[in-house]
Design brief:
With about 250 residues, the chain is mainly beta. It has one domain: Jelly Rolls. Strands 1, 3, 4, 6, 9, 12, 13 and 15 form an 8-stranded antiparallel beta sheet that branches. The protein has a 5-stranded antiparallel beta sheet with strand order 2-5-14-7-8, with no helix packed on it. It is globular and about 55 Å long. The protein starts with a helix and ends in a 15-residue tail after the last strand.
């Protein structure tokens, strides 16, 4: 997958987000996400296109059993993880919160998206909260609150577009750089290249230096997911100046 293919997608997402990301607390929810129903680009690894859960397993390796209907899967029956794993990646997914007006706090449409099965971005019905905290929607759970509340109301589809940079290790296997996450929710920047200083989800592998899966959490609430895919990213670009063609 070339950087030329990935960059236009990311650039369009960033540009769409800039005007909306300025107010510290939006008075109204953002408009429909600019990446809603975004088609997977060439080279993307499609994890869920609306048909079946063939790309997923339960945590014990057994086939995933979340129900699938009308192009979406619903969280129930335990966490699931993708069979495909990744290091650096651009991850896209869409989710829909159930309407649970009598529920409060962490019981209100709770789920989560864990990059490499280790670094959780919270999914929760936090619509209307003025100052979301470290356990609200968009948080790097327990470590960083969302910069702004970009939540749509329940029963409306929302998007996460996540740029994940895996941790780096030196030649001796010692940690050199922590994992980093940039998260856009509904086209709004809610996490800006934050450094995740430790695992905030029970790891699916004991070695954080290995590739890991995308994990979707079942927290007992019927959160729906659709259009889930990722694009692997190179660790770095060329260090050589190639010059323009013909120079």
């Amino acid at each position: 997958m070339s950087v030329r293919t990935v960059l236009p997608i990311l650039l369009c997402t960033w540009l769409a987000a800039l005007p909306q990301a300025q107010p510290p607390v939006p008075a109204d929810p953002p408009g429909p996400s600019p990446t809603l129903e975004l088609a997977p680009p060439p080279g993307a690894v499609v994890l869920f296109s609306g048909d079946d859960l063939g790309a997923w397993t339960r945590m014990d390796g057994a086939p995933a059993t979340w129900p699938v209907a009308e192009g979406a899967m619903t969280s129930t029956g335990g966490d699931i993880r993708s069979k495909d794993t990744f290091q650096d990646a651009y991850v896209h997914l869409e989710w829909l919160e159930p309407d649970m007006p009598d529920a409060q706090g962490q019981a209100r449409g709770n789920s989560g998206v864990a990059l490499q099965g280790r670094y959780e971005v919270q999914v929760l019905d936090s619509y209307g909260i003025d100052a979301p905290g470290k356990g609200d929607c968009g948080a790097i759970y327990g470590q960083y609150s969302a910069l702004v509340n970009a939540c749509r109301p329940p029963l409306e589809w929302q998007t996460y577009d996540i740029i994940f940079r895996a941790p780096r290790f030196d030649a001796e296997g010692k940690l050199a750089e922590h994992a980093r996450l940039t998260v856009l929710q509904n086209g709004v920047v809610i996490q800006n290249n934050v450094q995740v200083t430790g695992l905030n989800y029970p790891p699916t592998d004991i070695d954080p230096g290995t590739p890991g899966p995308l994990l979707l959490q079942d927290h007992g609430n019927p959160v729906q997911y659709r259009n889930v895919w990722f694009v692997p990213l190179p660790e770095k670009g060329s260090e050589e100046y190639q010059g323009r063609r013909g120079e």
